[in-house]
Amino acid sequence: MAKYKLEYIWLDGYKPVASLRSKTQIKDFASFPKLEELPLWGFDGSSTKQAEGRSSDCVLKPVSVYPDTTRKNGVLVMCEVMMPDGKTPHISNSRATIVDDADTWFGFEQEYFLYQDGRPLGFPEGGFPFPQGPYYTGVGYKNVGDVARQIVEEHLDLCLDAGINHEGINAEVAKGQWEFQIFGKGSKKAADEVWVARYLLIRLCEKYQIDVEFHCKPILGAYQEPLDWNGSGMHANFSTKFMRETGGKDYFEKLMAAFSKYTAEHIAVYGPDNHLRLTGLHETQSIDKFSYGIADRGASIRVPHSFANNGYKGYLEDRRPNSSGNPYEIASRILKTIQSVPTA
Ligand code: ADP
Ligand code: MN
Ligand code: MN
Ligand code: MN
């Protein structure tokens, strides 16, 4: 038997964006614990906007488990929040009832800013660095500073050690802005991994005295004046089995008609304050328009060249979800719209 450190992670009741919370319990296991071996646990929901003080217990139900190589015998346990009966999903539980399908694949491109002293890393106090241009995929101290790369590299290793399907990293368009990509089969699996990857990044940054800013448009002028600095998205790439294996132009056009029809429903779960980001500038379409186009980074949905060249088969990129969006809700909405379109 060995003593394992189980870090139970959950989403709190804050709005419009849930924050990550976690706490540790120690349990004996003969070897690295399987999901079925992990017990339910509880927490004080009155401290997380999930309960009143008079009846404050909420239940943590483990839903996925990952090795945590920062600790001896460390385990990351992603949880859903349940009511005291342990069976009914809590109202803040955005995972329990989503649409899922293991044959629908998602690739999330999580963009974010590293922040220190209330401003993006590398921004001078009270001013702006050299304008956008050299930073995207840039190299060199003047472009990326001296600590960001160390953070994103360490984060990559933590994710890979955890078994998270991390697919890549790039420096982004704004100074201090980065991206990582997570791919997963099924809404829950892909979204769990995004949340755990976010958790690992936020926790890793503590020792650097840096925070992760997930807001979709953190750099604005006075009175939210738009400035020439990119916002942060979380592009959602998706493909169903049918899209990968059969597809076709006719089906694609029906699919895009459905996405157009449900524009408002999609925007509703694509992250708060998206009107500040989806302006039609900075590689976005305006929030009130729906469009698609081959290789078009100014469209709501970008159709990769490979998709069009391959008989309208493969994956599509919805560019509207933002960096602080909830990947459970985003994946579920995409799948719901896809399921409204007959394949025959
Ligand atoms: P870009 O920055 O050019 O938009 P990225 O390389 O950052 O592209 O992201 C592409 C994403 O597409 C990756 O997250 C990848 O996992 C995802 N992806 C690739 N193939 C598929 C597929 N068949 N289904 C769903 N997602 C996919
Ligand atoms: Mn990308
Ligand atoms: Mn990007
Ligand atoms: Mn993209």
Our Rg estimate from Cα atoms comes to 21 Å
The number of distinct helices, counting runs of at least 4 residues, comes to: 9
Largest sheet: 9 strands, mixed
How many distinct beta strands?
14
Question: Which short descriptors sum up this protein?
Answer:
alpha+beta, Creatine Kinase, Chain A, domain 2, 2 domains, nine-stranded mixed sheet, binds adenosine-5'-diphosphate, binds manganese (II) ion
Give an account of the 3D structure.
This protein has 344 residues and is α+β, with helices and mostly antiparallel strands. It has two domains: 2-82, Glutamine synthetase, N-terminal domain (Ubiquitin-like (UB roll)); 105-339, Glutamine synthetase/guanido kinase, catalytic domain (Creatine Kinase, Chain A, domain 2). The chain is built from nine helices and 14 strands. The strands form two sheets. Strands 6, 7, 8, 9, 10, 11, 12, 13 and 14 form a nine-stranded mixed β-sheet that branches. The chain has a five-stranded mixed β-sheet with strand order 2-1-5-4-3. A hairpin with an 8-residue loop joins strand 1 (2-11) and strand 2. Helix 2 (148-162) crosses helix 3 (187-205) and helix 3 runs antiparallel to helix 9 (327-339). The longest helix is centred in the middle third of the chain and has 19 residues, at 187-205. The radius of gyration is 21 Å and the shape is globular. The N and C termini lie far apart (55 Å). The relative contact order is 0.13. The model has no long low-confidence stretch (mean pLDDT 97). The structure holds adenosine-5'-diphosphate and manganese (II) ion (3 copies).
